[in-house]
Design a protein that fits this description.
With about 120 residues, this protein is α/β, with parallel strands linked by helices. The protein has one domain: 5'-nuclease (Rossmann fold, 3-Layer(aba) Sandwich). It contains 6 helices and 5 strands, in the order E-H-H-E-H-H-E-H-H-E-E. A 5-stranded parallel beta sheet has the order 3-2-1-4-5, with helices on both faces. The two termini are about 15 Å apart.
Length: about 120
């Protein structure tokens, strides 16, 4: 299984937040499964940090580097795929994650109910 963590799921994971469902936590921990974090999620977090809408854990970069996550770059194919998506969700970062799932064959780990309206595999966080 190849998982793509939604931005809030990454933050919940790093903070040990109890909002992350046990089944999602087990899936992220499961040996042999690949876990991806999109560059779009890192960009979204830094933008929210810059405008005061988000506080990152102390030493976020160090915390992130120690986790078993693989970075997923944003490519032209991902960006182009967003044009084909129905207007289920307006957030450009979430639309990009959906496009990455479609292009790369990933399962999105999310608690965002709106993202369930897309035809992608999801795992409820």
């Amino acid at each position: 299984m190849r998982l793509l963590l939604d931005t809030h799921v990454l933050l919940w994971w790093l903070n040990g937040d109890t909002r992350l469902r046990p089944a999602a936590r087990r899936a992220i921990e499961r040996p042999g499964w690949r876990r991806f974090v999109s560059a779009a999620s890192i960009w979204e977090m830094t933008l929210k940090l810059a405008v005061g809408k988000l506080a990152l854990p102390p030493h976020f970069g160090d915390l992130f580097a120690r986790e078993p996550f693989e970075p997923l770059a944003v490519t032209a194919a991902h960006a182009l795929r967003t044009a084909d998506l129905p207007p289920v969700h307006r957030d450009p970062f979430d639309r990009l994650l959906v496009a990455q799932c479609l292009v790369e064959g990933l399962t999105l780990v999310t608690a965002d109910e709106r993202l369930l309206g897309y035809s992608i595999p999801t795992l409820r966080a």
